């Protein structure tokens, strides 16, 4: 990314399409997240989807946000209870639909939503359509880990509740491409999540996927490290963790819940006695440094991989910091043309072609 | 548990059968764990299975352990690579087989092993046999949580890689019984692990299990809280988390891995600067208090539920502290007659009988 030149105008900014509704904290949190991002990054602008009057009232408070934001009226809201099939059939008036439409039309390069994951995935699939060679798209997240970059790519974490061996191979290819482009790893290590690292363990589709992923590694510029276990998601055995969306979803939520429990216990430990309260004052900077490193809000944002267009799913409970992190990720992916690279990678690797794509 | 009286002799101690082999750290760690437990609990004694000469050399160093330990020679070792079916067919000479045999014969009331989980489960099933009404036994663990007792019961965490709706109902009943007897909860809250809390979400066997567990709750003295998510494993939504062994295994290992990553980052944060090193000295007690609360070794030990006899599976990587925690759990379960209560509970709840059992 280069610094903006004099010739660049507001139109040259990366336009991000944002679903203002459907998050647990409502549109105020989403607008606060946009504001945070706008102040941190001069190169982005927004098209915000939701009830016009409400959004105007929120955006107009901030002149620096207002001048970079277009509001698109959408009166319907997709709730967490709505069935994906319902939303696809009759959700045309919703802010989520409108946000995806802006990507479909080419107006924006990427959409961000913190609404109902199932509905967002279903809408994204129907409206943006799958890339050639992709049967099941996947949601990928960056999970804090002990490897050099500080993160592993993990997918699928909930686009679908199942995946067969072929899907798992495609997840490996898409995750590898994300790790190359997002984490700057030349030859990412790919691991397949299982209940043990021995080759004979696990479900039959995993054994089949093991062979497929192993056999593709020479063509596709990744190193297959074989089966990995839950503990390796935060470890340094692999850079890309491949699994089905049910297991992946449970795993990341378990990890987040455990991290949050430890944070709570840490605060309790430091409130225990006058001495521990004193020590917590002195330890404040260290603790803040730690919190910054493990705060799940800072890596908020799963990316839907395998579609004609980029969609970033933020946590339903994301606050301004979380939404701003999702916007940052969306802007990065949009700016580096990641989706085209991924499409080329999947297309090149699948039959037996040996075209090399970044 | 009452204090030992003058009439009690070494024979009145709770005898625990211990597989000394198959753990990552070898028999020295197992013997060190026994020593720790022996010193903490005067009411237990051991029968230790493995290569006689090696075990004698380790045990004889400690007079207080020696007088409470019988060594049973077994030359074979089940490795982590051995297939369960192999071990069942030709593992008669192994320390694992011998350890389970001591429970089967009634000599010991409970067995502890840190060896190959699949082999231990297969041997336990074949030699101890399943309880009436149980198709798939399960491994249950205590997972640190924010509820009153500080722990949730979670099962299955790896006895099998699949479970149908009927199995999940039995897991609910067995987990509930464990929570009543192990955590002293009169009416445990049972949750079914899924990727969302909405009723229509998830795999079909989960929807079926939802109905079964809900319909049994009035007879069986638990409260069904419905679907729970990964974050609830360490939360306060349920006391018992029911899932299949694949998902459960990945989830607990993810949680442990995440906790260990945070611990590592916490140490780094406190080494960052002279001030943070000073503050860590002052914070030492607080940090130790925290570590004690979240140390996975202190809740080490999964319990096999659904068999005619109790088997405690310790982590393969357990050290003396971990093994001692598993022995402590084994002794508690043995002393309170938990397995008979669980058997009665499953038998009573399954058809439509309404016998109430503790």
TrEMBL record, chains A, B:
PANTHER family, sorted: FATTY ACID/PHOSPHOLIPID SYNTHESIS PROTEIN PLSX, PHOSPHATE ACYLTRANSFERASE
Subunit structure: Homodimer. Probably interacts with PlsY.
HAMAP family linked: PlsX
Entry GO MF terms: phosphate:acyl-[acyl carrier protein] acyltransferase activity
Listed EC numbers: 2.3.1.274
Keywords: Acyltransferase, Cytoplasm, Lipid biosynthesis, Lipid metabolism, Phospholipid biosynthesis, Phospholipid metabolism, Transferase
Keyword Acyltransferase set for record: yes
Catalytic activity as recorded in UniProt: a fatty acyl-[ACP] + phosphate = an acyl phosphate + holo-[ACP]
Known pathway: Lipid metabolism; phospholipid metabolism
Name of the top EC class for this enzyme: transferase
Provenance organism: Sulfitobacter donghicola DSW-25 = KCTC 12864 = JCM 14565
Chief location: cytoplasm
Record-level GO BP terms: fatty acid biosynthetic process; phospholipid biosynthetic process
Gene expressing this chain: plsX
InterPro entries named among the record's database cross-references: FA_synthesis, Phospholipid_synth_PlsX-like
Known role: Catalyzes the reversible formation of acyl-phosphate (acyl-PO(4)) from acyl-[acyl-carrier-protein] (acyl-ACP). This enzyme utilizes acyl-ACP as fatty acyl donor, but not acyl-CoA.
Similarity remark: Belongs to the PlsX family.
UniProt name for this protein: Phosphate acyltransferase
Keyword Lipid biosynthesis set for record: yes
One Pfam family this sequence matches: FA_synthesis
GO cellular component: cytoplasm
Entry-linked Gene3D superfamilies: Isopropylmalate Dehydrogenase (3.40.718.10)
Cell compartments where the protein resides: Cytoplasm
């Amino acid at each position: 990314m280069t610094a903006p030149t004099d010739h660049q105008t507001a139109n040259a900014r990366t336009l991000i399409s944002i679903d203002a509704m459907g998050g647990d904290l409502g549109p105020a949190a989403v607008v606060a997240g946009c504001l945070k991002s706008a102040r941190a990054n001069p190169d982005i602008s927004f098209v915000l989807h939701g009830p016009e009057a409400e959004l105007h009232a929120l955006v107009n408070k901030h002149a620096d946000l207002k001048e970079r934001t277009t509001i698109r009226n959408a009166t319907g809201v997709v709730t967490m209870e709505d069935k994906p099939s319902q939303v696809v059939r009759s959700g045309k008036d919703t802010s989520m639909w409108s946000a995806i439409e802006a990507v479909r039309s080419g107006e924006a390069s990427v959409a961000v939503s913190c609404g109902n994951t199932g509905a967002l995935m279903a809408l994204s699939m129907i409206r943006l359509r799958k890339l050639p060679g992709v049967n099941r798209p996947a949601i990928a997240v960056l999970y804090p880990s002990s490897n050099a970059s500080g993160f592993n790519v993990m997918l699928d974490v909930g686009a679908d509740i199942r995946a067969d061996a072929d899907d798992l191979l495609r997840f490996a290819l898409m995750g590898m491409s994300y790790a190359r482009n997002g984490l700057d790893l030349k030859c990412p290590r790919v691991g397949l999540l299982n209940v043990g690292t021995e080759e004979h363990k696990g479900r039959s589709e995993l054994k089949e996927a093991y062979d497929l992923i192993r056999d593709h590694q020479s063509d596709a510029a990744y190193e297959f490290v074989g089966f990995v276990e839950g503990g390796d998601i935060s470890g340094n055995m692999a850079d890309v963790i491949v699994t089905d969306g049910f297991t992946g979803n449970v795993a990341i939520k378990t990890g987040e819940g455990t991290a949050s429990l430890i944070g709570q216990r840490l605060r309790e430990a430091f409130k225990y006695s006058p001495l521990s309260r004193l020590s917590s004052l002195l330890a404040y900077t260290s603790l803040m440094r730690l919190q910054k490193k493990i705060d799940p809000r800072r890596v908020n944002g799963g990316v839907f991989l395998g579609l004609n267009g980029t969609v970033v799913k933020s946590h339903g409970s994301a606050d301004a910091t979380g939404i701003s992190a999702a916007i940052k990720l969306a802007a990065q992916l949009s700016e580096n043309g990641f989706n085209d690279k991924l499409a080329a990678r999947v297309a090149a690797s699948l039959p037996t072609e040996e075209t090399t794509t970044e």
